[in-house]
Fold these 4 entries.
Entry 1:
Amino acid sequence: MTEPLLSQPDLWRQLLALVLVATVVMGSPGPTTISVTAVGAAFGLRPSLRYTYGIVMGTIAVLLVVATGVVAVFASMPKLAPLLAVASAAYILYLAFKIATAPPLAARTGEASRPTWLAGFLLAVANPKAYVAIAAVFAGASSKQGAVELGLWLKLTVLALMIVAIHAVWLIAGTAFARFLRRPAASRIINLVFAATLVLTTALAMFG
């Protein structure tokens, strides 16, 4: 009788390897992770949750697209990729402007300037780094040679949980700066740094 899957040491080794690779590749600075951090720093934790939820759901959608091979269909449409890249870059520049010009937390009223979950979702779907990073992690996990093969649903579940955890950590890191943003001078400097970092990481993801 076959040994239960979760009791096999080789499976746990492969799962650990998958988590470590996902942490390094998917968790590295990029348009979505830096934007979550920047939004968290500029607007605080609670106002940033909807945007982060959109980023997470959009990134999970990218994961499903990569896993099901739909990304190959997009690759066969050479005119679509530049349009997505331009749309993503345009929104990131707009978001960077909003972050750079955001007033100190203590001076804010209303919710008009807060990024929405839909904006986060669309940015994640149009994020070029997400497709490359997730495809690399997914392909690496699929090419492991060993007695135990990680199932598709197990890989999807683990990577989806990693997406949630990674963006949660970046959001918390950003909100750690929020307490400094009640002082106008510190607020302006930190917001400008995050806005510049967001633009730089996006440029590296697209052209690096």
Note: The chain has nine helices and no strands.
Entry 2:
Amino acid sequence: MPGVTHDEAPLLGDLMPWSVAPLRPGRGWPMGPDAATLRARWAAFVRADPAEREKLLAPTRSRTLHTAVAQLPGHPGSTVPLAAASGPCPEPVRVLHGPFDEQWLIPDHRLIDAARPELWRVAGEGQLFLVEQGYVTGATGPAVLASAVLPDGRSPAGRPGRIRPLFRRPGGREPNAAPGLLAHLAAALGQDVGAADLLAWTLAVAQASPAGCRVPLTADAGLWARGTELGRRVLALEARADGTRPKLPGGRRPYVRAPLPARPAEVFYDADEEALCVDEGRISPVPKEAWEFEVSGVRVVELWCARRTAAGEAGSLEAIRPAEWPQAWTSELLELITVLALLAELRPLQEALQEELTASVEAAPGPGITADALRRAGVLPVPDTARRPASVLDHHEEGPGGQFALL
């Protein structure tokens, strides 16, 4: 049975039609690599007098000290204007700040210009997110990434992608798939196909294009099985929803050979020694493939380190940062290196799968499961309702000033 060539492959935006634009924070200080720093920034903010508080907020058209907004879904914070804010910092939560960079965010709707509440409503147990990376001509790296925590959807190259939840409702209910798509694939493959299978296949074969991320499909059950198994291996490294820590084989595991300094100024890679140098600090062995791993043309490790060594503008809340390099950052850096090294090992398998997809078309030409075939089957175009969020509100959400929000 045939597969589908790149130009004939359907767009991810048609296969998983509900997507949300990246979060727009409006200011940098409510997000950071460690939660303690965010609490310190909040404390400095609420201690400030009204004039200084306005300066520290960095107001925008969407958020000022007097803006009235609803609660962020799932987070029972205050809805009084920030001019009257007091008390302890809302408990920071984990978010994904661009590729492979889990950071912390103060989940306060008053601080975030565009928080995308529809995403917060469906986040939680059973949910996964695909983040489509912005297209960059000639760039290497994955076209789409998976996350178990809420992603902000930011591209390292500054080009916006799209966030696609796997499910449209909380608790892993109602797959975000074109109506009829999973049944169509099941009939073509002669086996059950669920939302998790579609996600795994996408991680294995998705390709970037100027028109958007494309996902070649196949009616070959053997190819589908190999692709979904490979995609699950990718997912286990990218999302790690079960909290497992991946490991490289003994002898290849990175270790701290010299302690990382409190506030490093320079990060570079010593290819001869396979070492990541953070000023006088040193981690090795670091495979070249991990150091060179890119998303949208930007090296992931280099960007991760740069975000933790930036000083922040003097007098701003972003200038409040750890006095010493936290031990947790070192552990996270070692894990990041491990994940990228293991993902790099899967790349040849993904490339081989792509070649098999192309060869299957040449060996058995036919209609395959192309975008046109999905249109003939009535799967495409998807109805407009599938591109909008589902109505999921089954509890009260507090609106501005303590009033109930109406949706």
Note: The two ends are 47 Å apart (CA to CA).
Entry 3:
Amino acid sequence: MAGFVKDIGMALLGGWIVGVIFAGMKLIPPVPPLLGLIGAAGVLIGGFCYELIVKFVFKS
């Protein structure tokens, strides 16, 4: 779990750095609209939940 949290932190830090650079250069950020990001987050959360379900169901 600690590795997962570290990965999230590193991803956020990397995104923040890119955001600062793009804003400083007056460029449009290379990200989809908010709804696209929410949909992508849903896909990732769904995949994570699937792995947890499979892990718990087939563990016993």
Note: The radius of gyration is 16 Å.
Entry 4:
Amino acid sequence: MPILNRAAELQTEVSGWRQHLHTIPELNFDLPQTSAFVAQKLREFGCDEVATGIAKTGVVAIIEGRLGAGSTIGMRADMDALPIHEAAAHPHRSKTPGIMHACGHDGHTAMLLGAAKYLAETRNFAGRVALIFQPAEEGGGGGNVMVQEGMMERFGIDKVFGMHNMPGLPVGQFAMKPGPIMAATAEFTITVKGRGGHAAMPNQTVDPIVIASQIVAAFQTIVSRSTDPIESLVVSVTKLHAGDAYNIIPETAELAGTVRTLKKEVAALAKKRIHEICEGIAAANGATVDIDYDSNYPVTFNHEDETVFAGDVASVIAGDAQVNRAMPPVMGGEDFSYMLEARPGAFIFIGNGDTASLHHPGYDFNDEAIAHGVSYWVRLAETALPA
């Protein structure tokens, strides 16, 4: 069965919601306008319960099926934007300089709202649907906060599903895989403390820039020489700051970056090697080093049965040929991982077409994907919760 007729009918209305949300991007947990808009719509649809203030600005709505008792399925969308200045000039561009929806969370929210409207109208399922609108996915760990606040227990959620758009994947296609689908993330900040002095007399100094450069170069061996070539690991230094004059060797140098991996064991190895490399090189050069290592989001791990189920639902919407059930893992991070640690479920990607990449100032969610996403959510609920 292709996309639902009712989902196609809702396309224009849901696109309007999406474009409105795009104009009012908000960051992290500070989403007063976004969460208020979401809660208002859910109440207008006639949801049986609309709970606000979860993880500060998160919203959870409950829709009861009309076909009797059953389990509760959670369906999640993220709501926050990114601190990026929008480059596009479309009519619905961001009204807030320096903030934009560069990851499509406006589209995720709108699609789940479209599904909420449909499901509240039809209620053609047994049990309950929990619609989860989450703040602070972009680094704030809002998914973890919702779980820690007891969301799963409070609403009796038995299984949980998430969806994210993917630029480059054609509109109307879906992709997923069982097991690790997105990486665990970690961030590090390393301060090398040397001895500053005149740049013309480097022998009287302990140059932190030279030492930091050696550390950056040595980090490249963590992947190439310390890790099994079959494993997935990224170690990237993304910042290096030191000094402010041509003729002065500074006292300190600071470098920072990220680690991405698909296995806990590899993550532990990378952390261990980063400490060993920094401490060893610093000691060899007569310097000291401070290491701030923050293990962030865990691996987004799709449960086998739920991933097969999600793929089957996507195939009903798009056809078998349009569903990739063995996509390569993505080394980006995702805090839906916390929800998948708390409950069985699956995370799926939906095609956004030939658009700018995620986190790019020229990105915009493709509204042509909306009917496909709404149809997926509706079919997922109705199939998972039969009479």
Note: The chain has eleven helices and 16 strands.
